[in-house]
Design goal:
Layout lengths: L1 H17 L3 E4 L5 E4 L5 E3 L36 H7 L6 H11 L8 E7 L3 E8 L2 E8 L2 E4 L5
Antiparallel strand pairs: 1-2, 2-3, 4-5, 5-6, 6-7
Length: 149
């Protein structure tokens, strides 16, 4: 009898741990987190623009407000960290694609100004569409850094 109760308790606990959250994409491009308790929430607040609605604004590096010299070279990144971030799609190319998409410009127009990077987190400063923007990475999640005041 005791072994039956023990088996039942272990079985029910394994079932409860087996439930998992899922991320799905809606028709308009937003990602939704489906939770195990049958609730959901948007991961992306704004809907992704359709390809026909995207306005590409090409700015040359000489005409930006970031005032970069013509021979500016982006800072070198740690190859080991970038190789590790490749699994989670958080390499510098992925970050630049995200910045270009949010600022409606080409990936070539996004210039890395400074970087502070570790395995678990990183802070990146870019020049996109003539304005200086800061993004941070926690694990493989990339978000725009916001100021409180």
């Amino acid at each position: 009898m005791k072994s039956f109760i023990l088996f039942f308790v272990l079985f029910t606990s394994f079932i409860s741990f087996a439930q998992d959250n899922h991320i799905v994409k809606t028709d308009d491009g937003r990602r939704v987190l489906l939770k195990a308790d049958f609730t959901w929430e948007y991961i992306d607040i704004k809907a992704a623009n359709a390809k026909s609605n995207i306005k590409t604004v090409s700015t040359s590096k000489e005409n930006t407000k970031c005032s970069l010299p013509k021979d500016y070279v982006e800072p070198k990144l740690n190859g080991k960290i970038q190789a590790q971030l490749k699994k989670g799609r958080a390499t510098m190319n992925h970050v630049k694609n995200k910045v270009a998409k949010e600022y409606n410009c080409n990936v070539e127009d996004v210039v890395l100004l400074s970087v502070s990077e570790q395995k678990a987190k990183g802070v990146y400063t870019f020049c996109a569409n003539g304005q200086e923007v800061i993004y941070k990475r926690i694990g493989t999640t990339i978000i725009k850094k916001k100021t409180l005041f």
